[in-house]
Amino acid sequence: MTDLNKLGQQAKESAYQLGLLDTATKNQLLAKMADALEANTPVILEANAQDLAKSDDYGIKETMKDRLRLTEERIKEMADGIRQVIQLPDPIGEVEKMWKNADGLMIGRQRVPLGVIGIIYESRPNVTTDAASLCFKTGNAVILRGGKEAFYSNQILVKILQDTLVANDFSPYAIQFIDDTSHAIANELMRLTEYLDVLIPRGGAGLIQRVKETATVPVIETGTGNNHVYVDKDAQLQMALDIAVNAKVQRPSVCNAIETLLVHQDVAEFFLPKLAETLDGQVEFRGDERALPFLPNASVATEEDWATEYLDYILAVKVVDSIEEAITHINRYNTKHSEAIVTDNYFASQKFLKEVDAAAVYVNASTRFTDGFVFGFGAEIGISTQKLHARGPMGLPELTSTKYIVYGDGQIRG
Amino acid sequence: MTDLNKLGQQAKESAYQLGLLDTATKNQLLAKMADALEANTPVILEANAQDLAKSDDYGIKETMKDRLRLTEERIKEMADGIRQVIQLPDPIGEVEKMWKNADGLMIGRQRVPLGVIGIIYESRPNVTTDAASLCFKTGNAVILRGGKEAFYSNQILVKILQDTLVANDFSPYAIQFIDDTSHAIANELMRLTEYLDVLIPRGGAGLIQRVKETATVPVIETGTGNNHVYVDKDAQLQMALDIAVNAKVQRPSVCNAIETLLVHQDVAEFFLPKLAETLDGQVEFRGDERALPFLPNASVATEEDWATEYLDYILAVKVVDSIEEAITHINRYNTKHSEAIVTDNYFASQKFLKEVDAAAVYVNASTRFTDGFVFGFGAEIGISTQKLHARGPMGLPELTSTKYIVYGDGQIRG
């Protein structure tokens, strides 16, 4: 039985040391971790083969198996991922602003690590090295709890990182792995208030819901995206078609793909048949009663469809009377992730940007751009769908906190 | 029985409308609220008299009774507090930065309201109008749950604010009050995940601990301050004395006062007798074995003393061998609020600023300065002692979230 309190205690002590490291030292350790991954390619592949051998027992689909499978090239990519993190600026220590107050105190707001970060995630083993290196770079100790599908891969990856730390006289507890894939231990992690400064769950709607109900530690919710494209009456129909198709099928299994298309009644009869034709045989349509006449082979959309993140080649379609109805529908059913309008109308674009409640709101662009790398952050630890602390793609600064440093010359309060 | 789901639903709808108001409209409504408070002075005093009449039943101390008592002047101060909020810049709508990414998308990060904020607080009725006006200014709906001691005062204050909203054709549900002072309803509020975007508890260690164990909604912990002044071997003793005395007795009942004084062994014999003399008869000392010889009438400090926020005229005192021992003691026992070193030594000051884990770390100044007004924020909704979202004194920007607004011209992801 894993003793989470022990892991938490170790992480806390390690976080303190880690928080005091300078950037050069952190980068040197990260470089050694990257080298160690490559040097240990055979044992990683061996562990990964153990996971793959079990994947049929777990009933894992072929597409997921592919994401789980490691190759020499993919291990090199993981190492290169760590090398990219080395190149990123270190936010720790930065004083964002400093001012003199009325008492003559110089007050500065300085970026510091969060402390101990817990991450619960699912299949892909590259998340292990990505998350570990991003947390390390920002001076945070991390406690990783991966899914059972990648258990052996994750375990060996963390062991290699820890061995590297020990070989370089640093605490291995900066990066820890929970050797237990039960729900019970995950729930315990969600309530480890004494040690965890934040928990980041990365996974499907089921995990996020469980975290919401269970967690008492500070949480950054990530990932679930029930997103929409709204085709306005003043849309350029070819642009709308390109954006809708891209947002739906370029990669349907990711959180920034769309699940429902909304179309203004004035253009539905022109737009929907083209959409149906373009995606014929590739996408299953579920339409409301006004959309159905323009969508051959579509089934009737139910209330549940509006609320579902399919992550699949399925698209719900609804015809709306107005932009107001589109915005109301979106704000009612979305998961506050990514939303787009296609329009040539200035006022419609401004209204949509202002009134739609989501982490990222687009005018005339695909929702698929919601991504830390694409936004230019150089890294991504996840996409926050909550409003506290971080919203949207999270880069290195989102893994930090602040403290006020105050320089006085004897001031007391009168 | 209060139906929190109903309050939550109403708050959510109201928050949506409130989020769309422009600054001038919000300020006009706030001005009318301020006027209405003054105009209703007699009924407020009447409700406050009801609270005061009950205060003996609740066993409230005289100092607390004083904080509960309203007068014509104090009601005017509450109204003026709202008028000060009107003067503050409105952070909503501000685009902090905007850049063009590699795909030619213009991406801006814009400040938006958090949505629905819950606040659990204790006795003082002025918190009701302060919190309501700060949340309103930042476009957030608020659900207030005050303590039983100020129940009638809080109730009438919220009613006056709501009546003002209704009289001006705005939803009264922007500012709601929970008509129930039971622990059960507070616990329910802590788990209202469907509606609350954040919960801010303002109160003592007991409340904060209960929130920590119970809350599943996002929380900003506030307030508890087990703070220290460390007198270094290179301190100017008169400055150290002034700062220690100010931090302890200028107002011992507040969260930025100190509870423990740490003194370097090299200066203990000079400093402690002066401290004892200065605070003789005013402060009860509890010392470790090395401090006791220099503190006449002191009792022996126990392990519990190091961890206690007295909020009273009591000071724990410990002699340390080194700055390292001081920092270790602080990081072990503090509540991450406010910490100060007194020293003339450059390296000691930098070490303390870097290694002490707290929201505000001071060199040669009293911890009593940790305060949103003193820091220059113009307002304060509380002092966060957690690391997520906000740390230290929280002003208006800490009551906001962000969203990315993205301007494209037809981009799709390749």
UniProtKB/TrEMBL annotation, chains A, B:
Molecular functions (GO terms): glutamate-5-semialdehyde dehydrogenase activity; NADP binding
A Gene Ontology BP annotation from the UniProt entry: L-proline biosynthetic process
Subcellular location per the Swiss-Prot or TrEMBL entry: Cytoplasm
Keywords for the protein's UniProt record, in alphabetical order: Amino-acid biosynthesis, Cytoplasm, NADP, Oxidoreductase, Proline biosynthesis
Keyword RNA-binding: no
Pathway: Amino-acid biosynthesis; L-proline biosynthesis; L-glutamate 5-semialdehyde from L-glutamate: step 2/2
PROSITE patterns: PROA (PS01223)
Enzyme Commission number(s) from the entry: 1.2.1.41
Stated name of the protein: Gamma-glutamyl phosphate reductase
Record-stated family: Belongs to the gamma-glutamyl phosphate reductase family.
The keyword Oxidoreductase appears for this protein: yes
GO cellular component terms listed in the entry, alphabetical order: cytoplasm
Lineage start: Bacteria, Bacillati, Bacillota, Bacilli, Lactobacillales
Pfam families: Aldedh
Main subcellular localisation: cytoplasm
Gene3D superfamilies cross-referenced by the UniProt entry: Aldehyde Dehydrogenase, Chain A, domain 1, Aldehyde Dehydrogenase, Chain A, domain 2
Domain spans labelled Aldehyde dehydrogenase: 3-279
Catalytic activity: L-glutamate 5-semialdehyde + phosphate + NADP(+) = L-glutamyl 5-phosphate + NADPH + H(+)
Coiled-coil intervals: none
Role played: Catalyzes the NADPH-dependent reduction of L-glutamate 5-phosphate into L-glutamate 5-semialdehyde and phosphate. The product spontaneously undergoes cyclization to form 1-pyrroline-5-carboxylate.
Gene: proA
Signal sequence coordinates: none
